[in-house]
Amino acid sequence: MRGALPGLSLALLAAERGARLCAIIHYLVHGQLAWFGLTIACVVPGYAAQLLSILWFRADGHPPGCWLLVLHLLQLGLWRRYWDVLWMRTEAREVLAQLGDVCVLRLLEALLQSLPHLLLQAYVVVAVDPAAFIPGISAGLSLVSLAWALVSYSHFTCLLKPGHLSLPAMALLCLLLWRTGMLGTRVLALVLFARLYSFWVFAVAGVHWLLMSFWLVAQQTDIVTQPCRWRLFNCLVGAVYIICYINVRPGPSKTKVSVFYAVST
Q1: Whole-angstrom distance, CA of residue 33 vs CA of residue 217
Q2: What is the largest CA-CA distance in the chain?
Q3: For 12-60, how does the pLDDT look when each residue is reduced to its tens digit (9 = 90+)?
Q4: How far does Cα 214 stand from its chain's mean position?
Q5: Are 122 and 139 in contact (CB under 8 A)?
Q6: Which of the 8 DSSP states describes residue 250?
Q7: Rounded Cα gap, residues 143 and 3, in angstroms
Q8: 208 and 97 share a domain?
Q9: Least packed by Cβ within 10 Å: which of 135, 137, 240, 262?
């Protein structure tokens, strides 16, 4: 399972990037410059994960050279990290640390880049051009890639717990199907609401974001300790909770998940 999971993650990442590039070319060839520009804009937030990856390389005692900086500039830094995990021949603890870094970075990139792209392409397919094949494929791959990023993060958190082994393939498949279904229905609901009520979708999303942010504050999450960063962290995770739930505190999460679904339904 050590090589299978990073290999699958790398393959999904490559497929998603390829489909995104095809969607960009599709809009450019057909003269749909507005959708072309918005699709390009969805790529920009991904640089946050690339910057964090460079900082972590430096913190680990590996100052990035010119080649590594070029890879991150091309948003290929996570590809390099997956490749390193696949070919590492060190002890298991070091491999787990590197796998944890790339899982967290991939989740951050998926939430900042894949999720906006998914929402945009889903809106194009549902509300603008139902016959748009390439944007539909791109949206589908972004959905699966985002779901897999969440599954990979959950799998890594399980590996951190004492006595926990790697999840079997069927368990990972069930988690992937659950995440894909949850994300797909929420994205579809937002897109249909936006099609019917236009900009009112931002009001609904804003109310949901405020509720989730206040809920996180009430939980007293201690992942970030500095006051300014703590507020920013709660605001960012509150925005993520519009689409999906991520457990940000150790321990049982059944009650929190129930509250999340009760508010979000």
Answers
A1: 41
A2: 56
A3: 999 999 999 999 999 999 999 999 999 999 999 999 999 999 999 988 8
A4: 22
A5: yes
A6: S
A7: 23
A8: no
A9: 262
DSSP letter at 168 equals P
As a whole number of angstroms, the distance between CA 8 and CA 11 comes to: 5
Provide the 3-class DSSP secondary structure of residue 15. Answer: helix
Claim to verify: residue 114 and residue 204 sit in the same structural domain: no
Structure tokens at 226: 């500095």
What's this model's pTM, rounded to 2 decimal places?
Answer: 0.89
Per-residue pLDDT tens digits for 155-214: 888 777 766 667 788 989 999 999 999 899 999 999 999 988 888 888 888 888 888 888
- Is residue 71 within 8 Å of 50, Cβ to Cβ? no
- As a whole number of angstroms, the distance between CA 265 and CA 260 comes to 8
pLDDT at site 39: 97
Residues 144 and 24 in one domain: yes
pLDDT averaged over the chain? 85
Among candidate residues 171, 197, 223, the one where a domain is terminated? 197
172 and 53 part of one domain: yes
Q: Name the residue range of residue 101's domain.
A: 3-197
CA nearest to 68, candidates 85, 49, 82, 81: 81
Dist. CA 65–CA 97, nearest whole Å: 22
Number of domain units in the chain? 2
Instruction: Kindly state whether residues 182 and 245 are assigned to the same domain.
Output: no
Is there a single domain that holds both residue 94 and residue 149?
A: yes
Residue 142 has what pLDDT?
A: 96
